[in-house]
Structures are given as structure tokens and as C-alpha cells.
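Bench notes, afternoon.
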Amino acid sequence: SKSARNAFIAPWLRGASALLHAGRFDPAERLDLIAREGVDVLCMAPTEYRAIAKRVDLRELPSVRHAVAAGEPTGPEMVEQWREQAGIEIHDGYGQTETGHLCGAPIGEPLRPGSMGRPLPGFKLWVDDGELCLDPSTVPTFFLDGPAGTWRTGDRVSEDEDGYLWFEGRTDDVILSAGYRIGPFEVESALGSHPAVLEAAAVAAPDEVRGEVVRAVVVLREGHVPGAELAAELQEHAKRETAPYKYPRIVEFANELPKTPSGKIKRAALRDTPGRAAG
């Protein structure tokens, strides 16, 4: 339903035409397609934005007026790279299949790279014990005869002093290590800022002492060789970018990450595959 809303319903509501690319995703081909067809509003998954930024040389796309990311969180490094190299501001947002679009960074408001924005007008959202909640009576697309009260999204977020929301992960994706709650996205974003990393996923791995530890599965960029030395370097990099207790104690390398058709990482599939410590 999200794909139908983004690809068909939203353009129709604006009286706009939609260009759908059904072919196999290729970063260079996607850039050429955007330029050739004169796309002016671009909507892609963050995975696609990241792949383009890391696999090809970004260039200015004069026709693009606005860019939107949907489906998973963006990372501040990727947003800054598109801004600096292509002159394009990527606006992130958040919603669920049951609710539609709930928050975002509207055009004209200050953009905070990595944030999913603020609640959109008319929606009542709040954070309860780290989980994003909403009043279902403020959501026009909610279930007919649905339950009254609080709708718990199952997504863990933090909120800054200006009301901007920052995604940490699904409740069942959060890693509980030695009493700390560690959101996988923060670890993934830190690893993704390393020049050797194409993309990364962070999941929980059982540990007898800490209960759980962070396990990272990393896909490298071309020209980089996996090994214990690079794994240790990535661990130190994660410590510097986040906090010492958040670094991945297990680092593995893979050729690709399991993903859904929309580009989201299948963390459950990774959790079901046992990991081993690096080095």
C-alpha cells in the first residue's frame, strides 16, 4: 500500500505524472534515467541513495527540485554527500502502512540530516518510554471501527529539544547489551561513514556476560579486502563515531545484505544466522 501511495496516489493528487523504473537497479543507469527523463521530484529508498553515492560519481541534476527518502532512515553522511556533490536536499519522512505519512521535513523548514522530521500538522504524536505513539483519532486513514486510545508504532525514537524525531530502530531490533539500549541504525550509520564500507547491518548476538552484543555484517566497497585488521579498524571507527559501548564486538563481511523488495534490510534473517567474533 505504501508503494501504491507513493507511486500513484500522491502524484494523482497533485495532477502530476509518475515515472516508474521497473528494471534491475543500477546506480549509473538510475542517474542517467533521472537526467534523461527530466525528473523533478525524486523518491527513492535510502538504500538506493546510498548505493548511488558510493558506487558512482554524483553530479548535478538540474531538473530535480525536491528529493524524498522513504522506507527506512537516512544517514547524515549520505544526506550531506548528496547536498555537496549534487546540490540536492533529501527530505526524510516517516509513516506506517496503517497510518500513512505522519512526520517529515516539509519544504522551507530547516533540514536536520538523519532526522525523520517533526509531526505533520493535524497528527498527535508523542514518545512513551522510547517508543513512538499516536492518537489514532487524528489519523484519517486508520482502521474503520478501530480501537480507541493509544496506537503504539513499535518503533523506538528519540526527540530533540526542537521536536525533531530520530529513528533508533524497531522495538524488536533494539540491542540490549549490559543494561544499555543500542539502536541498530546508529551503529549502521557510523560504520557507513567509513570509506571502506558500502553498507552495513547491525543486529543482536547472544552473549553470556552482556546478554546481547552488537553484531555487524558489512559489505565492502570495491578495492577493500576483508580481514581481521579491517574488522578491528571498523570497530575503532564505530567507537569514535558513537560511543564505546555501542561498537560491534562481532564484525563479519558479506557480499550483500538480505533485503525486502523495497530495499529494507532483513534483520530477522541476519539474526537467524549465527555470528562469530572478528579477529
